[in-house]
Every structure is written in structure tokens, then in C-alpha cells.
Amino acid sequence: MKYITQLLYILLFSGLGELLERVIPLPIPAAIYGLVLLLIALATGILKTAQVQDAANWLISVMPVLYVPICVKILEYWGVISQNAAAIITIIVVSTFLVLGVSGLVTQWLIKRGKRK
Amino acid sequence: MTELLQDISLFPLLLTLATYQLGLWCQKKTRSPLCNPLLIATALSIAVLLLTDFDLQLYQTRSGWITWLLTPATVSLAVPLYGQLKAFKNQIGAILVGVAAGTVTSLFFIGVLCGVWQLDTALTVSLLPKSITTAIGVVLSEQNGGIPALTSAAIVITGILGNLVGSFACKILRITDPIAQGVGLGTASHVIGTSRATEIDPLAGAVSSLSLVIAGILTSVLFPLVLLLR
């Protein structure tokens, strides 16, 4: 029973997110609206962490499995992807390093500056 | 044989769980991030579908409901996020600015590089969200005319890359602060990078999982802007 109630809350916020996605004309996924709404509910105490925790942890733990059917669709696009394979791989490698470096160094610089004060 | 398998309505789900299980087993045996369960499950699923000549359309319709669970799973990320926000109250400013800097860098450079290689809009939109968590990236790609399968693959490859070279990159760039290491790994390589961050330092791991959610939210907010600028 615990899981049913908890799942109900999470689905409720997911549904609200989908409604907002329809109403707000921005290309932001429904899940983001739902996530932010749930975060607000937790922060304001409307909902307690314990009221959703178990179902949330379960959903998060199975998340990678949910991507398998999406990844399998790569079959349909194999032509266009293999034609641009060199570009795609280069872009992935270069941008991953850049992002890691910039975000890490900026954070480190801010933390050091904060400590000096 | 093909017809027999197509008569089992749960076959796509069975195949998904069985191949993922094998992937988990490989990862446990080898302890290598190269043995990513999602990559192994995808490759094996594709192999089985091709070998048995399974109707791909049928596979997609029957496994579609699994994908439908992604929205509630992503919404659930709010629960650990809330806990982490409370734990890192004092450093939240530095973390937020760091993640924002990384996210802007990511969108800007991927946009520029795609332009340099003259990739079309569908490919560019598919690659733009490649540093964030699959749940958000795939939807952004789908909503804006990208190829969700490519986005998903690019995200997994990015994660594995971050995981493999994360510690090395932190060393040569002299990122020594565990919070900064967490922000770097989480912003650049989401969940798979986070597992490396956790190995470096538990604090880095927690910051990394906080960063990946913030990066996901920021990317979806900035996405419309990036598309306008193109």
C-alpha cells in the first residue's frame, strides 16, 4: 500500500507537469515542471520526504533500463549517424573535456575566493 | 521462430530486462566503465531483434510504455535533490555558478562545432543536450526535432568518457577541491560521471548528483534560447 500512495503523489506531480507543458509555450519537458513543483512541495513542507521517498528511489533506480528501447531506435538512423561518425565523436570528446574543465575550475575559484574573505 | 516470439506480447520487456541483467553481470565481473549495462543491453537487444527478424515496429509499440515511465522517474529526482540542496546550503552559490558556466560552455561549443562540421539541424539538436541526464536530454531532443536515439547514445558515450578520464582530467587541470570535482563530473557527464566522482570522494559524488540535476534544468531552460540564436 505504501508504494501505491507514494506512486500516486509522484504521478500527480508528473500530471501537473504535463498540464503546464501544454499551457506554457516553451520547449521545456513536462518532467522538469513536475520536478520543480515537487521540489517546491518538499521545501514548503506540503509534502514530507518520507511520503514519496520509497517510490521515488525505486523509479530512479530502474531509470537506466527505461532507455533501452529508445537506444534500440538507433537502428533506424544508422545511415545518417555512420555518415557523420567522425564529427559526432569529435564533438562529444571535445565538449566533454571543456565542460568538465570550465565548470570544475569556476567552482574551485569561487570556493577559494570565498575562503579568503 | 519469429512468429512464435511475436506472439509473446511481453517479449520486448523480457528482452530488455534479460539483456540489461547480462549488462549488469558484465559490469560486476569486469568492474570497467566500458561495460556499461545500457550499452550492452542496447547492443544485445539489437542483435537479437535482427537475428530473429523481429518486427521493429511491433517492438517499439510494445516497449513504448516502458519509456512512458521516464517522466515520473525524472520527477522523482526532486527527492534526492531536496536533500542535497539542504546539505550544501553554504556552497550553493559556487556550485550554481560553476554548473551554469559549464552548461553555457556545453551549449555554445556544441553549437559552434556542429556549425563547423556543417551538421544538419536534426543532428545538432540531438547532440546539444549530450552532457545532461538521459531523461531530460532525450525529451529535449524529441521536442525540438532531434533524433532521441542518437541523443541517448551520445549521452551514454559522454558519461563513459567522463567516467574513464574524470580523475585524470581533474589532475591535469589541478581541480583538487572535492566540491569542484563533483561539479565538473556531474555537469559534464551526468550519472555515469557521478559514479566516478563517488569513488574519488563521497562528497564529490553528492555534489555531482546535485550538479547533474541543476545542469539538466538549466539546459532545458536555455534550450529555446539556443535554438533561436541558431
Question: In words, what does this structure look like?
Answer:
The complex is a heterodimer of chains A (117) and B (230). In chain A, 80% of the residues lie in helices and 0% in strands. With 117 residues, chain A is an all-alpha fold. Chain A folds into 2 domains: 1-66, no CATH class; 73-117. In chain A, helix 1 packs across helix 2 and helix 1 (2-23) packs across helix 3. The radius of gyration of chain A is 20 Å and the shape is extended. Chain B has helices at 2-7, 11-30, 37-51, 56-68, 70-76, 78-87, 92-116, 121-127, 134-143, 148-172, 178-200, 202-229. Chain B has 12 helices and no strands. The longest helix of chain B has 28 residues, at 202-229. Chain B has 2 domains: 2-68; 76-229, no CATH class. The termini of chain B are far apart. By secondary structure, chain B is an all-alpha fold. At the A-B interface, helix 1, helix 2, helix 3, helix 4 and helix 6 of A face helix 2, helix 3, helix 4, helix 5 and helix 6 of B.
Architecture blueprint of SSEs:
The complex is a heterodimer of chains A (117) and B (230).
Chain A: H1 2-23, H2 30-44, H3 53-66, H4 68-72, H5 78-83, H6 85-116
Chain B: H1 2-7, H2 11-30, H3 37-51, H4 56-68, H5 70-76, H6 78-87, H7 92-116, H8 121-127, H9 134-143, H10 148-172, H11 178-200, H12 202-229
Give a brief description.
The complex is a heterodimer of chains A (117) and B (230). By secondary structure, chain A is mainly alpha-helical. Chain A has two domains: 1-66, no CATH class; 73-117.
